[in-house]
Amino acid sequence: YGPINDYGVLTEDAIPRDFFSDINVRRAFAHIIDYDNLIGDPAGFAGEAYHPATAIFAGIPYYSAGVPAYMTNMAYAASNMTAAWGGNLWNIGFTLKICYFYGDLAGKKLATQLATDINGMNLKFHAAPAAVSWQELIRARNSVQLPVFTQAWTTDYFDTNAMAYTFYHSNGTFPSTGSYYNATMDAWIEQAVRMPDGPSRF
After folding, report:
1. Secondary structure string (H, E, C) spanning 18-75
2. CA distance 63 to 201
3. CB atoms closer than 10 angstroms to residue 77
């Protein structure tokens, strides 16, 4: 899924293992996504989706409408890429693959759009969409081998914990595969799932 360098080692033909440890890189990727086009295009979600600010979407208990969502902003993304890794990433560049399940049309559209806009930002940036089988996607995801990938997720049961744990707990499906750890968030989620519904749980 692309060459990986040791921690902190930037080269144009790879990324370091801790590439996304820099918040500027994470902010840049979040603002490169063309949310409106992904949702509205027939090759994406064909208008049958909306843009939630968090994994706790409208309709789930304790949803908060006041949380701002990430928006597409290429200028802001470029400014973050310029600042990333002490300003070195912009001058050195990087190469990575964006994996998606080959039967996932929306995933393909997102991976392709991300790669196109990343590459157009700097001639030293090299991103490419990569279709893989479902089995390979899950194996590589669980082995923490995918720096960037797309995957759909449907809540297993209609409670806030179903999404909060999956997306925000250190042992959840996605945080664990991205080496994310936040003891404070873990404690809140574990406390909330043991509480009865009511203001305290919110």
Report:
1. CHHHCHHHHHHHHHHCCHHHHHHCCCCCCCCCCCCCCCCCCCCCCCCCCCCCCCCCHH
2. 12
3. 21
Nearest alpha-carbon partner for 78 in 8, 27, 5, 133: 27
The pTM (predicted TM-score) of the whole model is: 0.90
Convert the pLDDT of each residue in 28-56 to its tens digit: 999 999 999 999 998 889 999 889 999 99
Instruction: Give the CA dihedral 38, 44, 46, 48, nearest 10 degrees.
Output: -80
Which of 145, 148, 28 has its CA nearest to residue 90?
A: 28
Look at residues 17, 22, 26, 54 and name the one whose alpha carbon lies nearest to residue 167. Answer: 54
Per residue in 56-112, pLDDT (tens digit) is 999 888 888 899 999 999 999 999 999 999 999 999 999 999 999 999 999 999 999
Token reading at 193: 């799932």
d(CA 93, CA 114): 16
